[in-house]
């Protein structure tokens, strides 16, 4: 760092450096005068032009298939778009919208927190009575018991943990209770989500304190 | 993980291209830092609703771009897997491999699996039959078995239990074991659709009716990458597609006098090289860097198995040629079993990387720069004067060349001071080549290249959107005319008329130009992802 400062500082050291590097004085002067601050060219000249890509049958096949695959992906259920709401409605909208299948993924392979309720609520509304009957099944009860057990375990373990966690748990317990009573609707869930976030993060400071305590402990060791 | 700035950007662009902006945003956030759902929701607060985030996450997990695990606090942490994302670019290559090895139905299996992320065997069969009604069940099933047998497809581990809201996977079972009940499930499926009692359940959730429900399969990209690597090494050893066409041209020219000679040697070496790799095809780890060993007797056995037209002297000749011409990649180990040969994978990867490096230098500078580069590689640390003398260039030239090489990151220098203050007059500047360091730079450069290619391609697509839409409208009309019962002449006249009306001359020229540009852009993507693969393998191999 100091070397840099020196070099830029006085012309004497600069000359020394230039001498040591074997750069003649006029070369140095020329270089200094050429210094301009410009972005480099977008397409700098190359000594030899790159060899053009030879389109073999393999490459043609690959590029054609890629176009098809990409288009398929873009038209598939996995291409997720936000629903446009407050835009001017146009006549052509009806025709420009691509009809996609509803996103349908086997959620048993995913963490349960990822289940977005919209689809489940749809499914339940479709076969309302049957769902209701199913809900009385013992599998659901078992699940609930498991959940409660889990929470109990969590509470015991994380007793000395940060408060937001606790808030959270009680919150989700409450929501679980709500769920028992009435089958979920979209609005409820959304509100819940929001509550969850604000609760969790408003107490961010407390979280940080906990972390620093840990650090102190570490120092003691 | 551990990718640079441009690698992250490339991954985001790839995702945006196929899943849209929302999923790309979620991907970007996780690529930057692995986090929990709550953190993710907080980071994206105000940009999208939490249900969209959840949907995006599920999609990304479904395709294997994001993995999850429980942390010590029993919360689920999501981690991005950028290598998986890059496989999207080499997806068509994978289809091509499947098609050349196992035929068209293997290709359609791959296409379905790529575009759906993961599927059960029966879902795959159903989807293929929905697209192509002529597809035969046993055919598809056979191809599926073949692909699994060669480890090109892998089973997604099944869910064993659930802990803290996170499914626990059963990693113990054999990932290449085909389910037995494919056929019975298919009958089950039919039963369910006919009998009324089950149908409502089916509507709510169609998969539980299959016998193999929940047994998902996905592409085994590691295996495909291993195959691609072997292909690249063979290309390097005997000259790939380009030289093949060249020999064909040569044969055409000299058809009369010495026709089969050049072709025959090429044929022999090509086949023997392929067979050498074939021997170790289904080894435990497809990307393992252990050398491949093959003996003449092994090769003879394979020749008989594939009924190729090769005799023992032919094989010996080919092995000799490979040993002589491959810069130490193929070596002879001993005389047992008629002659034992080995292919040094590490060395091969290194040579390919060097080759790419040199061709880049040749492009940016001139031939003499390669002379300097090779000199430094051979002698390791040299100062300016030594370079000047040994490369037989004038002082000024050598200096300028070295500075330019340092600037572009092909050569590095190391100051060695005679005194503590590193005064320039009393300091040596030693130049040296550090290939892994150069390659790390090139990996970033390559990622930037792929990203730019995708952006350019998307730009072209939006620019020509109206034309493409028009073309999409015209095609069915023309198809109708073709199928109508007119004689050929009037058909042609009508088609020309329709084309002229919808797509006048300049538009059509523009469309053709666009198609050509797009093909080139996509082919370039394919090529550069292959180079990227070999660069990454080199860095992983830890060669210096």
From TrEMBL, chain A:
<feature type="compositionally biased region" description="Acidic residues">
    <location>
        <begin position="211"/>
        <end position="221"/>
    </location>
</feature>
<dbReference type="GO" id="GO:0005666">
    <property type="term" value="C:RNA polymerase III complex"/>
</dbReference>
<feature type="compositionally biased region" description="Basic and acidic residues">
    <location>
        <begin position="134"/>
        <end position="156"/>
    </location>
</feature>
<feature type="compositionally biased region" description="Acidic residues">
    <location>
        <begin position="178"/>
        <end position="195"/>
    </location>
</feature>
<feature type="compositionally biased region" description="Basic and acidic residues">
    <location>
        <begin position="163"/>
        <end position="177"/>
    </location>
</feature>
<comment type="similarity">
    <text>Belongs to the eukaryotic RPC7 RNA polymerase subunit family.</text>
</comment>
<feature type="compositionally biased region" description="Polar residues">
    <location>
        <begin position="118"/>
        <end position="127"/>
    </location>
</feature>
<feature type="region of interest" description="Disordered">
    <location>
        <begin position="116"/>
        <end position="221"/>
    </location>
</feature>
<dbReference type="GO" id="GO:0006383">
    <property type="term" value="P:transcription by RNA polymerase III"/>
</dbReference>
<protein>
    <submittedName>
        <fullName>DNA-directed RNA polymerase III subunit</fullName>
    </submittedName>
</protein>
<keyword id="KW-0539">Nucleus</keyword>
<dbReference type="InterPro" id="IPR024661">
    <property type="entry name" value="RNA_pol_III_Rpc31"/>
</dbReference>
<dbReference type="Pfam" id="PF11705">
    <property type="entry name" value="RNA_pol_3_Rpc31"/>
</dbReference>
TrEMBL record, chain B:
<feature type="domain" description="DNA-directed RNA polymerase III subunit RPC3 winged-helix">
    <location>
        <begin position="358"/>
        <end position="433"/>
    </location>
</feature>
<dbReference type="InterPro" id="IPR036388">
    <property type="entry name" value="WH-like_DNA-bd_sf"/>
</dbReference>
<dbReference type="Pfam" id="PF08221">
    <property type="entry name" value="HTH_9"/>
</dbReference>
<comment type="function">
    <text>DNA-dependent RNA polymerase catalyzes the transcription of DNA into RNA using the four ribonucleoside triphosphates as substrates. Specific core component of RNA polymerase III which synthesizes small RNAs, such as 5S rRNA and tRNAs.</text>
</comment>
<comment type="similarity">
    <text>Belongs to the eukaryotic RPC3/POLR3C RNA polymerase subunit family.</text>
</comment>
<dbReference type="Pfam" id="PF05645">
    <property type="entry name" value="RNA_pol_Rpc82"/>
</dbReference>
<feature type="region of interest" description="Disordered">
    <location>
        <begin position="186"/>
        <end position="211"/>
    </location>
</feature>
<dbReference type="GO" id="GO:0005666">
    <property type="term" value="C:RNA polymerase III complex"/>
</dbReference>
<comment type="subunit">
    <text>Component of the RNA polymerase III (Pol III) complex consisting of 17 subunits.</text>
</comment>
<keyword id="KW-0240">DNA-directed RNA polymerase</keyword>
<keyword id="KW-0804">Transcription</keyword>
<dbReference type="InterPro" id="IPR008806">
    <property type="entry name" value="RNA_pol_III_Rpc82_C"/>
</dbReference>
<dbReference type="GO" id="GO:0006351">
    <property type="term" value="P:DNA-templated transcription"/>
</dbReference>
<keyword id="KW-0539">Nucleus</keyword>
<protein>
    <recommendedName>
        <fullName>DNA-directed RNA polymerase III subunit RPC3</fullName>
    </recommendedName>
</protein>
<dbReference type="InterPro" id="IPR039748">
    <property type="entry name" value="RPC3"/>
</dbReference>
<dbReference type="InterPro" id="IPR013197">
    <property type="entry name" value="RNA_pol_III_RPC82-rel_HTH"/>
</dbReference>
<feature type="domain" description="RNA polymerase III subunit RPC82-related helix-turn-helix">
    <location>
        <begin position="9"/>
        <end position="70"/>
    </location>
</feature>
<dbReference type="GO" id="GO:0003697">
    <property type="term" value="F:single-stranded DNA binding"/>
</dbReference>
<feature type="domain" description="RNA polymerase III Rpc82 C -terminal">
    <location>
        <begin position="175"/>
        <end position="351"/>
    </location>
</feature>
<dbReference type="Pfam" id="PF22536">
    <property type="entry name" value="WHD_POLR3C"/>
</dbReference>
<dbReference type="InterPro" id="IPR055207">
    <property type="entry name" value="POLR3C_WHD"/>
</dbReference>
């Amino acid at each position: 760092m100091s070397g840099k400062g020196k070099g830029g500082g006085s012309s004497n050291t600069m000359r020394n450096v230039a001498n040591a590097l074997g750069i003649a004085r006029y070369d140095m002067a020329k270089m200094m005068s050429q210094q301009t601050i410009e972005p480099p060219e977008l397409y700098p000249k190359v000594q030899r032009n790159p060899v053009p890509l030879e389109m073999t049958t393999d490459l043609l096949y690959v590029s054609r298939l890629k176009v098809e695959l990409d288009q398929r992906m873009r038209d598939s259920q996995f291409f997720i778009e936000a629903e446009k709401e407050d835009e001017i409605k146009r006549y052509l909208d009806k025709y420009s919208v691509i009809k996609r299948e509803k996103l349908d993924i086997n959620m048993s392979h995913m963490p349960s927190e990822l289940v977005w309720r919209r689809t489940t609520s749809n499914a339940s509304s479709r076969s309302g009575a049957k769902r209701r009957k199913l809900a009385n099944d013992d599998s659901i009860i078992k699940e609930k018991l498991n959940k409660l057990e889990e929470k109990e375990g969590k509470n015991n373990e994380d007793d000395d943990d940060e408060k937001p966690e606790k808030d959270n748990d009680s919150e989700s317990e409450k929501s679980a209770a709500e769920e028992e009573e009435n089958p979920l609707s979209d609005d409820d869930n959304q509100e819940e989500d929001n509550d969850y976030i604000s609760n969790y993060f408003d107490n961010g400071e407390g979280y940080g304190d906990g972390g620093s305590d840990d650090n102190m402990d570490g120092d003691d060791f | 993980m551990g990718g640079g700035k441009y690698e992250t950007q490339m991954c985001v662009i790839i995702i945006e291209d196929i899943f849209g902006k929302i999923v790309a945003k979620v991907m970007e956030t996780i690529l930057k830092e692995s986090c929990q759902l709550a953190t993710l929701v907080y980071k994206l607060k105000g940009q999208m609703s939490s249900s969209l985030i959840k949907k995006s996450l599920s999609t990304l997990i479904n395709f294997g771009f994001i993995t999850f695990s429980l942390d010590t606090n029993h919360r689920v942490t999501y981690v991005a897997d950028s290598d998986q994302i890059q496989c999207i670019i080499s997806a068509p290559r994978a289809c091509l491999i499947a098609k050349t090895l196992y035929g068209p139905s293997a290709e359609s299996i791959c296409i379905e699996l790529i575009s759906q992320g993961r599927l059960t065997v029966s879902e795959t069969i159903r989807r293929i039959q929905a697209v192509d009604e002529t597809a035969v069940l046993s055919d598809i099933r056979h191809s599926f078995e073949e692909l699994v047998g060669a480890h090109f497809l892998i089973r997604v581990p099944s869910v064993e239990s659930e802990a803290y809201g996170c499914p626990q996977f059963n990693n113990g079972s054999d990932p290449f074991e085909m389910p037995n009940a494919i056929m019975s499930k298919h009958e089950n499926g039919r039963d369910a659709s006919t009998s009324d009692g089950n149908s409502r359940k089916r509507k709510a959730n169609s998969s539980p009716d299959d016998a193999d429900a929940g047994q998902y399969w996905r592409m085994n990209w590691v295996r495909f990458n291993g195959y691609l690597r072997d292909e690249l090494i063979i290309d390097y050893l005997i000259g790939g597609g380009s030289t093949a066409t060249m020999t064909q041209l040569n044969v055409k020219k000299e058809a009369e006098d010495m026709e089969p000679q050049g072709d025959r040697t090429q044929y022999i070496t090509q086949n023997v090289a392929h067979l050498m790799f074939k021997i170790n095809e289904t080894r435990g780890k497809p990307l393992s860097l252990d050398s491949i060993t093959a003996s003449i007797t092994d090769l003879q056995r394979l020749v008989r198995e594939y009924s190729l037209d090769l005799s023992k002297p032919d094989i010996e000749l080919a092995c000799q040629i490979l040993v002589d011409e491959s810069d130490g990649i193929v070596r002879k180990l001993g005389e047992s079993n008629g002659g034992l040969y080995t292919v040094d994978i590490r060395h091969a990867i290194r040579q390919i990387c060097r080759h790419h490096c040199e061709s880049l230098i040749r492009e940016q500078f001139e031939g003499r720069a390669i002379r300097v580069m090779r000199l430094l590689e051979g002698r390791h640390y040299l100062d300016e004067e030594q370079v000047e003398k040994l490369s037989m260039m004038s002082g000024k030239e050598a200096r300028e060349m070295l500075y330019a090489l340092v600037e572009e990151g092909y050569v590095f220098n190391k100051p060695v001071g005679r005194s503590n203050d590193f005064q320039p007059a009393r300091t040596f500047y030693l130049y040296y080549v550090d290939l892994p360091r150069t390659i790390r730079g090139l990996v970033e450069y390559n990622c930037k290249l792929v990203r730019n290619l995708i952006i350019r391609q998307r730009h072209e697509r939006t620019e020509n959107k109206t034309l493409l839409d028009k073309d999409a409208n015209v095609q069915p009309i023309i198809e109708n005319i073709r199928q109508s019962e007119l004689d050929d002449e009037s058909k042609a006249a009508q088609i020309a008329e329709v084309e002229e009306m919808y797509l006048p001359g300049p538009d059509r020229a523009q469309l053709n130009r666009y198609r050509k540009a797009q093909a080139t852009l996509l082919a370039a993507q394919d090529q550069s992802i292959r180079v990227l693969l070999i660069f990454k393998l080199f860095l992983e191999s830890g060669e210096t």
